[in-house]
Amino acid sequence: MEKITKDGGGTYYRVPDSSDPLDGREGVALAHGDLLPIQQFARMDEDMRRSAANSLPTRLAAKLWRARTDPTVGDDPWTDGCKGVQEFVTASDLKHWIRRQEAGISDAYAKKLVSRTIDATLDLSKHRLAVRKRTQRTNGLEYVERRLILPADAEIPGERTAANESVTPTETDVSSRSATTTSDTEATSTASESTAPGDG
After folding, report:
1. Whole-model pTM?
2. What is the pLDDT of residue 139?
3. Is 147 helix (H, G, I), strand (E, B) or coil?
4. What are the distances in angstroms from CA 176 to CA 170, 179, 185?
């Protein structure tokens, strides 16, 4: 059996020389079944994706995810976030991106696809992503725009996120710190006893 160690430290085994039916792009040895549905679709090539998903919003959601994770794609509408948001894409940027992906579709149809693609992304990511509304101002006019966000603490298989990097102290760590504290206390106590009053 072949030994595989994942980012989280877990150890797994698989049959030697076996591989997933899809070309891995996460940079981590993850089995196909360990991935979120959106990651599985994103790893497919265009033909495989079309045969696996009849829905255009599903295919767009997969391509949107791949644009975020694969630098070779080039057309990436995602923006780095802050304050608990790792990355996000606005509804307006998503609309323009969809029109670039699907040549010939109208602006009105692209707007409909934005909502459907966002819904598909939420479903396929098992709601690891979320939608937030933010008030924007342009030319003195105020409006509310939706954002599809990837929270910094979202647990995404194969990716280093705040959730995956948070480590709970182990029993060994606690015991080690306790032993160090006890040692320091005993050393201080010994030093005090060896110094008689007035010797200072």
Report:
1. 0.66
2. 83
3. strand
4. 10, 5, 14
In a domain, 26, yes or no: yes
Domain assignment present for residue 52? The answer is: yes
Q: Is 111 exposed, middle or buried (0-12, 13-18, 19+ CB in 10 A)?
A: middle
Q: How many residues are listed for the chain in this entry?
A: 200
- Reported as type and span, the H/E element at residue 144 is strand 141-151
> Do 50 and 119 form a contact (C-beta atoms < 8 A)?
no
Choose the weakest-confidence range: 32-36, 45-49, 104-108.
Answer: 32-36
Strands 141-151 and 130-138 come out as: antiparallel
Return d(Cα 136, Cα 84) in angstroms, integer.
Answer: 19
Instruction: Give a yes or no: residue 90 inside a domain.
Output: yes
Number of independent structural domains in the chain: 1
With respect to residue 185, please indicate whether it lies within any of the assigned structural domains: no
More confident residue, 192 or 40: 40
Q: Which domain holds residue 103?
A: 22-69+78-164
| Both tokens assigned to 191 | 């030093």
pLDDT at 33: 75
Planar angle of CA 28, 34, 37, nearest 5 degrees: 105
Q: Is the pLDDT of residue 187 over 90?
A: no
Residue holding tokens 């010939």?
104
Q: For residues 52 and 6, which has the higher predicted lDDT (pLDDT)?
A: 52
The reported pLDDT for the residue numbered 68 is: 95
